[in-house]
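Q: How would the structure tokens look for this protein?
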Amino acid sequence: MKLSKYFILAAASLSWLAGCKDDPELQTTDIGPEMTNVVVDEEAVYGGQVSFAATLNDALPLSTLKAQVLFDGDLVAEEVIRTKTNGTYEGTVTLPYYKNFPDGGDAELVIVAQNTHFGLTQQTFPLTVYYPHPDKIVYLLGGQEYDMLPTENAFEYAVTAEFPQKPKGYIRAIVDELDSEVTFGYDTAAGGIVAGSTDAIPFTNSTAGEYTISFNIRTFDGAPFTKLLFDGAEMTMIDSETYSVVATLSQNATYTLEGIAGFADWTLDADFFERGSEAGEVKFLPLGGLYKITADFAHSYLKAEAMKSATELATLNEDGSGAIWAIGGMEVGKPTLQNAASWNPEKGGLCLARVADKKYQITFVAGVSINAAKFDFKFFHQKSWGGEFGGSDISTTSDLVAINDSGNLGLAEGKTLDLGGIYRFTVDITGGNKAAVLTVEKIGEQELPAADLRIDGVAMTQTDADNYSIDLDLTQGQLLTLGGADAYTPAWINPDFFAEVSPSGIRFVPMNGK
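A: Here is the predicted structure in token form.
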């Protein structure tokens, strides 16, 4: 036991002595490498490369050679070369490409040499930066390249050719003799064209055919973009398919929408609008107030949503003003069920129209915007989760629609909606937000549009009111993909001819044939 104690004491003493040894001292110096024969470019272009070279000599081991570009004292670009031995080093540093910067702007190029003891030597040179003037830039669309040539306008390039109504391509430019490449694409967050992107620029023209696409490499202005005016105010492009504007509207007032080709064929949210007597005119139906009007090109649809402010959607207030929202599954969606969002409030929340004090309505067409055989949706105080009309907050005497304990609306047992029937759901909160009364009435009928039924992407032909057909050459075991899922699901599939492999896929059973 005594021997063990001595061994422990000895080990502890050695450990303490080891801890008391001096750490190696970090070797530093204030003297940097000798830097001679420094050669740099005096001019450059945005997005281009700046060349530099320098000869380094040092008794200490070398570490790096850096080229730094500063705009107004801010570091915007840097290139680092590892240097091991004395000698001459050369390289390039790539400049960023900025929008609306000075053409011939002043910058600084700083060359910094460093050794392994952190000694620095640096020299600063003036650098003038211009916008490039390439002989051409290129518009890339669907694998095809279109040369865009300079126009009479400074820094603008253009091409005239046959284009679709909504071409979706991006632009590429070679900006200097070193083949430095800059691309220009669209940035949704920035709300416009930016450098360094290859995302499609959502150019749009009134029609497909021959027209001109232009782009300014300094201002990033491009054309054509659809310019929409609602009551004279320009609508903002949210993305390539969506434009909106916030405006104060008056009940039964008429407003003009300009800039949409084929607007006569668009669907209007019937709770908010009806067509006026002139082309592009719409009459606003609900109570007046602040609204966001949205033109949805993906669905050729004009809708409105109540707003609290220019940036905030309206919510239901204690006095019954504001807005009520319907959120539901894939069985409700405007203008059609193809736009249903399956309980996604942001995408699928539907604003009810405030048609009178403390009275709101929403209208559906069975088979178009609401499933005639089943549906499940609910009323909320906002276009998000939170305040809602629970089962104890809303009641109805309708024999067509039932409300469960959670406040969800669905068909009453044994009931269905008439295909093509127009059904109006009205929420009356005269008795308070906790005592809402729902009424449901059929107010008319409309002819259902032809179903968009497809097999392997090929449209089927409607042969009469209830039937569609298509002729195909099929091989045994061939897998077919069904499009227009609402029409196929649920559906009976003839098992002598097809085997179901998924909700939207079938396999052909018989021998090869037509």
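Residues 2-19 form the longest helix (18 residues).

Residues 452 and 484 are 6 Å apart (CA to CA).

Upvote if useful.
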